[in-house]
Amino acid sequence: MARVLVTGGSGYIAGFAIRQLVEAGWEVNTTIRSLAREAEVREWLGVDNARLRFFAADLTSDPGWADAMEGCSHVAHIASPIPPGAPRHEDELIVPAREGALRALRFAKGAGVNRFVMTSSVAAIAYGHSKDRTEFSEADWSNLDDPRTYAYPKSKTIAERAARQWVAAKGGGIEFVTVNPAAVLGPVLGRDFSPSIEAVKKLLEGAMPGVPDLGFGIVDVRDVADLHVRCLTADHVAGERFIASGPFLKLIDIAHILRERLGPEARKVPTRRMPDFLVRIVGRFIPELGQVASELGRVKISSSVHAKDRLGWEPRPVEETIVETARSLIERGIVKVS
C-alpha cells in the first residue's frame, strides 16, 4: 500500500480512518496540533505503531505541513475546526476551515499527491433552503444568503467550495473527492469526539426537561471512515461528492431507542417534547441551542444512494449505532448514570 496523510489525527473520524487504513496495510502519516499528545493518541488508536508517524501541524499556519506530506500519494483531509459551543464570531470557524483546506491542498500539490479526499458535511448541502424542501442529494449546496444558515454550515460550505475552486484552477493532476457526512455517532475512542455525540450525552444525563423538536441524519463513525477509505482507492471518482447518512431521526426518536434498549441506564432520558417557544427562550441563554432554533421542526433527508451504488458502501443499522454510542459513553465514564 501507499503512504497516506490523515489530517487531524486526534479527531473522532480521523481516529477510525487511521485504524482502518493501518489494518488495510497503508503507511500512515497524521497531523496533530501538538506532539505532546502523540503518546495519548497512539494509546487509544491501538494500531501498529511502526506504520504510523505523527507530525505537528496546524490549520492556520505553514510549519509542519511539508514534512507531513513528504512521501504521501494520498491525503484524507479530515481536520476541521469544531468548537464545543457557538462561536463568538462566524469567522472563528470559517477562516480556519477554508484556509486549512487550501493550505493542505497547496502542500499536497507540492508533494505530488495524487488523490485528495476532504471531509465536508451535509451542512454544505442542506441548509438555507425552503422548509418545504425535505430531500437532498450531492447536487445541492447550502444557501449562504439565508439568515438561518449559521456559522457551522457556512464554514463547511465555504471551505468545500474554496477547495473545489482551487483544484479547478491550480490543482493540476490532483483527484479531489469529498465525503459529506450527516451527524456522526458511534463508540468513542478518546476524549475527542463528534459534537453530535453531545446530543446523546445530554439525553443520557437528563440535562434538559424535554426534547427539542430537532433532528438529523445519523451515520456511524466507522462507516464514515470506511467511506473515506473507499474514496481513497476507488477509480474514476475525481470531482465527486458522497453523502454519508443513514435515516433521519428526531431527538425524540433517539430518546425512545435509548429508553427501549438500555433499560435502567437510560432512566434519565426525557421522552416528552419541549415546546418550540421554550426552546427559543432557553436558546437565549444557551448559544449552541439558540443558533439551531431555526431548525425546529425541519426534516432533512440526505440520500446516500450515490455512495451505495458507486462505491458499494453500506451503513450499519442506526439503532446499533445509537446504542453503541451510549454504552461507550457510559463505559468510559463520560456519562454517569447512577
From TrEMBL:
The NAD-dependent epimerase/dehydratase domain covers: 4-234
Kindly state which keywords UniProt assigns to this record, in alphabetical order: Oxidoreductase
Does the keyword Oxidoreductase feature in the UniProt annotation? yes
- Gene3D superfamilies attached here? NAD(P)-binding Rossmann-like Domain
Q: Does the keyword Oxidoreductase apply?
A: yes
Alphabetically, the GO molecular function entries are:
oxidoreductase activity, acting on the CH-OH group of donors, NAD or NADP as acceptor
The record's similarity note reads: Belongs to the NAD(P)-dependent epimerase/dehydratase family. Dihydroflavonol-4-reductase subfamily.
Q: Which PANTHER family match?
A: NAD DEPENDENT EPIMERASE/DEHYDRATASE (PTHR10366), STEROL-4-ALPHA-CARBOXYLATE 3-DEHYDROGENASE, DECARBOXYLATING (PTHR10366:SF564)
User: What is the recorded name of this protein?
Assistant: NAD-dependent epimerase/dehydratase family protein
List the source organism: Sphingomonas horti
